[in-house]
Amino acid sequence: MISIELKIAIEILDTLPNPVLVKNQNLEYVWINLAFETLFNVDREQVVGNLDKQLFPDRQAAQCNGGDLRVLESGEIDEAIETVFDTSGLPRETITRKSRLEISSEETYLVGVMHDITDLTRANEALKSSELKLQDQAQKLAVLATTDLLTGCANRRALYERAPEILENQFTSTAVLLMDLDRFKSINDELGHEAGDLTLKHFVHEVQQKLSPEDKMYRIGGEEFVILVPDVNLSEATEKANSIRLHIANTPVQYNDNTINITVSTGLVLKEKKQSDNIENLLQQADECLYLAKDLGRNRVEVVA
Questions:
Q1: The dihedral of CA 120, 124, 127, 133: what is its sign?
Q2: Sequence-separated (6 or more) residues with CB below 8 Å from residue 87
């Protein structure tokens, strides 16, 4: 005869949204609630007295039995994530909590409560996917924000963001090369802006052929560029600047039927080791040398004394 208290307990368990199961010491089902019936599309009558392997596919039966014997023998609570398959054959992620229930010295049962976390898992996966997409978009935006769209080299913003770390390092010297294409305005005026754009892209491409991986090039104005060359002395920096100058002078631009000969003037300043400086101050000094190079006939490198 089932007591009123037990009837009430069974009715309460039947109202729970979580599937609940009870097994005996032989791992045979003793009872399941309505949520369990709904999840697996089974009737209580056909489940009670059977083992998992008699009710479910091998894969699911193996997961359902996971930790059962250990829980019955030790009394330890077992909580694990399991993949079960619902009435439509679709996988459901659950957290199943199993514990031992002792009614008497001869009556011991396994009680399992399942928490369906499929929707939460899918929501978390969607959230992670969205976060990865946002991170990717943020990285792309950061690149766009610091890249000159025409030439593909870094822009003024990138220079002012990255220069402090380089120029405040007292353990290495850094050369600042301020370059300006000579008579660039005449290219735009005579052949049009398309020819001017092509010239700028050509210039950046050719200069980068002469740079090492450590050198960084920035477009800071229309035809004005800055190159930071780390770990060099004044002689080495001047040699590199002249190498670039000669290469540009000997590499004309082909635009339709026109050959565009270009040259570049450069102002150079060196931040020595054991010193730190800021980009504004160094650019001001390099700019004075650049103007001198222009005044002395262009296509030359002038160095801060």
A1: negative
A2: 38, 39, 40, 41
Q: If we measure between CA atoms, which residue out of 85, 151, 145, 148 comes closest to residue 118?
A: 85
* 246: Cα within 13 Å, side-chain hemisphere: 6
> CB burial class (10 A; 0-12, 13-18, 19+) of residue 265?
buried
Catalytic one among 45, 82, 223, 288? 223
Q: Which amino acid, one-letter code, is at 200?
A: L
Cβ neighbours, 10 Å, residue 16? 13
Q: What mean pLDDT do residues 86-91 have?
A: 72
Tell how far CA 156 is from the center of its chain.
Answer: 25
Which residues belong to CATH 3.30.70.270 in the chain? 148-303
Nearest-angstrom CA–CA distance, 273 and 28: 80
pLDDT score for 271: 95
The residue among 225 and 60 whose pLDDT is bigger is 225
Amino acid 299: pLDDT: 98
CA distances from 161 to 91, 143, 235, 240 (A): 50, 12, 28, 24
CATH 3.30.450.20 fits 4-121, yes or no: yes
Quick one: pLDDT at residue 142?
86
CATH code linked to domain 148-303: 3.30.70.270
Residue type, 172: T
Q: How far apart are CA 238 and CA 242, in angstroms?
A: 6
**Does 223 participate in catalysis according to the annotation?**
yes
